[in-house]
Design goal:
Elements (H helix, E strand, L loop, with lengths): L2 E5 L2 E3 L5 E8 L8 E6 L6 E6 L5 E3 L7 E6 L4 E6 L8 E7 L5 E2 L3 E5 L2
Parallel strand pairs: 2-11
Antiparallel strand pairs: 1-3, 3-8, 4-5, 4-9, 5-6, 7-8, 9-10, 9-11
């Protein structure tokens, strides 16, 4: 059974940075593609970016140039580096593994506020 655990969320001022981590157990983060998603209050969950099993990354236009997804195979972790944070980045952030079925973490709250 795959378990994903996110961490690193918190309160940050606009323009600041946070680094989220997603640690996997029961599966290797390099076996399947993985993605980061977020859900703001009252809104649908949306995709932030993905990293394929070969390491190719993709980002939503809203975060392109500010967010970076990386993978640490030794730690079985996928990271989301978030820079130049904006108010509208406030959301619960989730990681997912594109296994069959998909696996989801429990989420970590990111709040961008002055």
């Amino acid at each position: 059974q795959v378990q994903l655990v996110e961490s690193g969320g918190g309160l940050v001022q606009p323009g600041g940075s946070l680094r989220l981590s997603c640690v996997a157990s029961g599966s290797s983060v390099s076996t399947y593609g993985m993605g980061w998603y977020r859900q703001a209050p009252g809104k649908q969950r949306e995709i932030v970016g993905t990293i394929s099993s070969t390491g190719t990354t993709w980002y939503a236009d809203s975060v392109k140039g500010r967010f970076t997804i990386s993978r640490d195979n030794a730690k079985n972790t996928v990271n989301l580096q978030m820079n130049s944070l904006k108010f509208e980045d406030t959301a619960v952030y989730y990681c997912a593994q594109y296994s069959r079925p998909w696996s989801w973490g429990q989420g970590t709250q990111v709040t961008v506020s002055s």
